[in-house]
Amino acid sequence: MSWFEDQSRFSEYPAVGAVVYFGSEGGTHVGIVTGYDADTIQTISGNTNTTGSPEGDGVYEKTYQRHSSYVYGYGYPDYPEGIVVADPAWKGFDGVTFFGQEAGEEDLPRGGSKPDQPTAGTVVIDGLAYGPGARGDHIMRLGKMLVTAGCSAYTEGPGPVWTSADTKSMRKYQIKIGDRGADADGIPGSQQLARLKREFGKAA
Prior knowledge:
Largest sheet: 7 strands, antiparallel
Distance between the termini: 34 Å
Mean pLDDT: 87
Structural class: alpha+beta
Radius of gyration: 20 Å
Number of domains: 2
C-alpha cells in the first residue's frame, strides 16, 4: 500500500483491476476489484471464505459495500492497456477511462484501444508508447497539444499513428522550452510531456 501511495496511485475510489485494502489502515486483507457500482464493489481474493473471513480456505468472488468502513482504499496498478476508474481526479489522464458510478470487466480497454508494443526509438511514459511505431488516442492528443503550443509541423492531422510530423513537432516544442542536443530529439521525455500537458492539455 505504501508503494501505491508513493507512486500517487492510491485512491479512495474503486477501479476495475485495483488492489482493494480492507480493515484498519488497510492492514487486514486485500483483493482485486472486478467491478463496482454506486453502492458495492465486486472482488476476487484468496485466503477467504463464504463469510468474508481474512483467514479462510480458498479463492472467492465477494461483494462488499463500497462505502463500508471495512474498505480502506485502492491501489491502481499501471496496466499497459489502461485502467477504468471511479476517481474524478483521474479524468483526462492518458490510459484512463472514467466511469464514476458503475464499471466491470467488460469495460476494460481491449483490442485496438491498446497501443502497439514499443519499438526501437520509442519511449514508454505512464504505460504508453511515444515515438516511431507508436499508435493510440494518446498520440493524437499529443499532436493536438503541440498544435496548441504553436509547434505544429503537420500538413494534415495530427492522427493516432506516430509519424515524422510528430517527431518534428515535438522537436519544435523541445527547442521552444530551451532543450537542446539529446533532449531535443523529437521524442518526448517524461518531464517534457508533463509540462506540455500542464500548459496546453486543457486547451487541446
